[in-house]
Amino acid sequence: MGRSVLITGGNRGIGLSIAHEFAAAGDRVAVTYRSGEPPEGLFGVRCDVTKAADVERAFAEVEAEHGPVEVVVANAGITRDKLLLRMDEDDFGAVLETNLGGVFRVVKRACRGMLRARSGRIVLISSVVGMSGEAGQCNYAAAKAGLVGFGRSLARELGSRGITVNIVAPGIVATDMTAVLSKERRDEICGHVPLRRMAEPGEIAPVVRFVASPEAAYITGAVIPVDGGLGMGH
After folding, report:
1. How far does Cα 101 stand from its chain's mean position?
2. Which parts of the chain register pLDDT below 70?
3. Catalytic site residue 33?
4. What is the CATH number of domain 4-226?
């Protein structure tokens, strides 16, 4: 029957690719989405991860459909890129509340069933900028760096219960989020990437599936870069 897998922000981009990767492996996959429509062929639940009541309701729906969540991939996130002096309180707070606070809510709820089962896989989607930083992204970089400390602390808390926690850190990926950048800006970023190109979402998804697999049972607290070499040294 496969496992019950939940991916937040799984209706597009990296999240959707991850969802298809798990589904192709035979898992029962659910995705959360905040707007638009759920992806065809996947069980979708509308959820705003900044709201605890939404997270609780989403888990209840997934558990009723697929059983207790055995793998959670915390992927939902937003950007509000601005230079610090142009960034207001809402720009900073909204990114932290979604990209870090949302992960806290989702993972805390997922742990309820995992602790009872004494088994589980938690994968957090961070970013290369969480380690290297990026001008105009101090809010996003702060949240993604926070996921490293959050995830590694949880790895220590939960390891004795058979639950692993790992962090996957993509570099620049061809998604709707990067499509808004000018060609000149994308070319500039790719110029710093040793592989000289952006990643495709399908190059991130297999790494996520691996660290959630039985073969990765002895990997926890790891930060795994999938960034074409952009962040090496960090």
Report:
1. 13
2. 1
3. no
4. 3.40.50.720
